[in-house]
Amino acid sequence: MPRFDRSHTDDLAAFIQAAPTPYHACAEAGRRLEAAGFERLDETAEWTLGSNGDAAGHYVVRDGSIVAWRTPGETAARFRIFGAHTDTPTFKVKPRPDTGSAGWKQVAVEVYGGVPHQTWLDRDLGLAGRLVLRDGAEVLVHLDRPLLRIPRLAIHLDRGVNEGRALDAQGHLTPIWGLGEPRDGEFLEFVAGEAGVYPDDVLGHDLFTVALDKPAYLGKDDELFAAWRLDNLTSTHAGVAALIAAEDTGANVPVLAAFNYEEIGSMTYSGAQSPFLETVLRRLFGEDQRTFTRVMAASAMMSADTGNSVHPNYPEKHEPGHRPIAGRGPMIKVSANQRYASGAEEEALFRRSAEHAGIPWQYYVNRNSIPGGTTIGPISGTQLGILTVDVGLPILSMHSARELCGAEDPAHLADLALGLFAH
């Protein structure tokens, strides 16, 4: 099997390493956009979008979500929006984290999103997130080293472990981080010290456990790619790469919208159910709301998220007539009940984009007896009132601490985004 061009997937690996949380993902996306000539805007400031003629585009960050766009030309007539999300199932540190038992220091955590518990056991974990200081400043934290561990009960003490023993989220998933008696405030003092700030200045925190295994290629010919946060940094990274590359799109205004909180329902002031994206798009037209309404009527969105590849050990879990396989390109996700925002018009939009990009593609449909998950697609399409199609990469081990995809597929997804922006 001939070697493929690994440049895009190598770059995705670097993006994943730099983006252990939604806040880091926005920072890394912003860094890349600014290097390409984009300018960051403050939501609380007046926007004079024509004042910087050198800006390739602009972007705005709110609470782990980012909206970025290319500067509209004189012929701008419609938006082409590539949607994604920045969060991932993991464990979030509780407000008062210091706890412990039987001579072990532990950190109190809460399950964030749909976490398959077993994949996080006996794994060296780091920590990342943000600290919000007394003056309102936000400090990013990334402790990229073994710090925490959720230990498995030894098989000698749990003879039924291979018979499907359930784990209690409150009692069995508290990580250890040292020996001795816990002291209130000790863990946050440690994190503040690592961040170079005074503990008394920290008034809030969003801290998460981090899987430390580095992204890697697998297989005889490196045809597989494994990493944490493929769901959904593959899509966020693809959108950033496509937006940077989309230099001539005629009447189309390319937009990237990557939201936080998708894994827990999107009902936050910065999530897909919020007015964040619509507010940003409206500001591009100032007071000219009639033009905005016409532009939105001609606009379209592609919601990109991962989906389940057929599992070779559990083929009965999948819809028999639609079996996407990793390595064969992005999927269009179809659901009669609109768990995915795809119908005939949406399928045509997807296929035109894929044909323009010259990439392979597949269908994904849930098995009738297994409804599956949903995405930002139906939410954003409803919020904006625009044509929206759901797409994504087929992966194995979704929501695990280590997910797997075809190594060429991430580049195909970025090409699909470019195809959307171009027509």
Describe this structure as you would to a colleague:
This protein has 423 residues and is an alpha/beta fold. The two termini are 33 Å apart. The protein has 9 helices and 20 strands. The strands form 4 sheets. Strands 1-2-3-13-4-14-18-16-17 form a 9-stranded mixed β-sheet, sandwiched between helices. Strands 11-12-20-19-15 form a 5-stranded mixed β-sheet, with helices on one face. It folds into 2 domains: 7-88 and 228-422, Aminopeptidase (3-Layer(aba) Sandwich), CATH 3.40.630; 90-211, Roll (Aminopeptidase i, Domain 2), CATH 2.30.250. Strand 2 and strand 3 form a beta hairpin. Helix 4 (230-245) crosses helix 9 (409-422). The chain has helices at residues 7-18, 22-35, 186-195, 230-245, 276-283, 289-297, 344-357, 377-384, 409-422; strands at 38-40, 57-62, 65-70, 78-85, 90-101, 104-112, 125-133, 138-148, 176-179, 202-211, 216-218, 224-227, 252-259, 300-304, 307-308, 331-334, 362-365, 387-392, 394-396, 403-406. The mean pLDDT is 93. 25% of the residues lie in helices and 29% in strands.
